[in-house]
């Protein structure tokens, strides 16, 4: 019964020497389907580029659909400035507007040209309401302009901060190569020290604001403020920061205490990952290739989305204050001179832009293919790295039994034989993600709804699909590792990986996650160091930087940019480490099942791992 739930353990195979060299194509149907979908995606892009005009997003248009402020407008500028002279037939506009916004009233006025007719207008909005909305719009525009100005003033220093983050990440990985054990413990200690200093700094700021005017205002009373520095002038902000950092500090310390025994195995696994990366150094630069492909996918999606949104056809109608037969009828501005409407009173309005029946469908297809392609690129990187590191683990004599170029060999195998498998796994993940996008859209539309039952069901669905996405990502990652090793299709690889992990559930729950936790601390350390440096530099708190730091409206803009960018850079480097650890972990589990340490079936795991696990090969004493 147990074998039905967890599968049969892997049996010893004397012919197995690492990633299978003689393999066939997998998931061919999905590969063909993916290629057809890509060709259709190109067709959508060509259609959008031929029909769309991105100038509609940047420049406003007049009633004839011509772009304002652009050269080549066929109309005479004097015609655009030709207004009717004031007459006694129209009330004074300032008076009407003033009375209209000061309260709810109805006024009637009559225009007499060729026909006499009456227009009645009712205004119900107060002047305060209109001014409030206008103020919000103006303030938002001012904030955006100030943020843009801050970027123009600080982009050079932001790039320097990102370069520092890249150098720190590279230095950290190089040090891990030679001093993995020491670096892990130093990393743990530094993370605790950095967070501890953050708690101390927050307390000092909290104490310094005691008795300051306005410092005791609560965050709820303050509300939203565009200027972030306002929040730093009240005590409650620093108290909240201090409490959050203290909770994080306690959680990290408790995890280290309870998982101290598993840390030794995790450190041994990280040491082995460092050695593997040392033999496959070009793997550190593979994330640049992944980033380049993702940049191409994102750019194609964004450009196609803009062109699609501007590929709709405008419909023009004649609007004037006469009762002629052509009033409010559709027209073509190019032949508008043929209409028998007085020139002085004739103008056109772009009443509506009729969206083509297929436009929404094309936008949906654009988003779905973007997710599919992005997940495919990520999956390709995972399988490529997995194949390279698996060839290292299963090599009996390193590096003699390894391919000359492990990364290129693995990349070639992945594209030649397993494009369909990559497409299949990324298709499943993309389907779940597009469902999550639709649920978020529905949640946005139902924010004002009073049906609590519908909101509750929607919230449950969002939670379930979030959990499902995390599980599928985890399963896909391990399935790609098994495919890179054995060359089987997606379903078989996913099943084998799942059963292998189920047979070693305790090791998976503890060892693998402890390793991920240590790598996360490494990313946290790099982001923390760069973030602290950026804070003291851009805020001008250090006198040595006062003359060098740029003068900014919001100094948190470059700080936040540097912190986010540093995390992405550190994540790119550490993702190689994470993939290496996951691959070696699966190989390690397979090694325990295949071999028993005898002369015929020796363990291929390194001596450091055998030492921690108290395993030994025959003829070798127990360490």
TrEMBL record:
Topology of the protein relative to the lipid bilayer: Multi-pass membrane protein
UniProt keyword Phosphoprotein present: yes
Biased composition (Basic residues): 106-122
Alphabetical list of Pfam families matching this protein: Choline_transpo
Top-level taxon: Eukaryota
UniProt keyword annotations, A-Z: Antiport, Cell membrane, Glycoprotein, Membrane, Mitochondrion, Mitochondrion outer membrane, Phosphoprotein, Transmembrane, Transmembrane helix, Transport
Compartment list: Cell membrane; Mitochondrion outer membrane
Molecular function in Gene Ontology: antiporter activity
Reaction catalyzed: ethanolamine(out) + n H(+)(in) = ethanolamine(in) + n H(+)(out); choline(out) + n H(+)(in) = choline(in) + n H(+)(out)
InterPro entries on file: Choline_transptr-like
Region (Disordered): 90-122
Record carries keyword Membrane: yes
TM spans (from-to): 28-49, 155-175, 182-200, 238-259, 279-303, 369-396, 417-439, 517-540, 552-574
GO cellular component: mitochondrial outer membrane; plasma membrane
Homology family: Belongs to the CTL (choline transporter-like) family.
Role played: Choline transporter.
Protein name in UniProt: Choline transporter-like protein
Gene that produces this protein: LOC115387030
